[in-house]
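Chapter summary example.
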Amino acid sequence: MVALQGGVHRLPLPRRVLDEYVTSAPSPQNAVDLFAGEWSSQLPAPLQHVQAGPLPLFDDARVTWAIECFGGVAGSRVLELGPLEGGHTYQLHAAGADIVAVEAQGRAYLKCLIAKELLGMPRARFLLGDFTPYLRDTDERFDICFASGVLYHMRNP
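The structure predicted for these 157 residues follows.
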């Protein structure tokens, strides 16, 4: 079956991200809107005007408390398990940590990359995959392992 759109013959194909184009000027909102309605996190200043999700995960009191318990994280290598959308990563980064964050859910991983780009987190590296084999196979060493909200996703916590 051939569809006629704007005088161009096109075969019907499944919708793909690359088939959609943004027609407005570049903005942080455009990047966030790639996952419109899917964000859990409210973005921090200076992006508080960007509409994302409702939860203050980029300003989470539990992370502030953990950083205080650690005696600070400046200069520490932190392994973060399950960063979701990068909110806790952002707080650890703002406190001076170098972070490797492992996220298994593909769409959450892409949201982490959007957050990294919009908020400028050069000392954060996001990896896509299951952290269990990563932990088993890596030779990397870390000062701190930070995991918030991941145990209930595991088959055998």
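To summarize the output: The beta strands are 3-5, 8-10, 77-81, 98-103, 124-128, 144-147.
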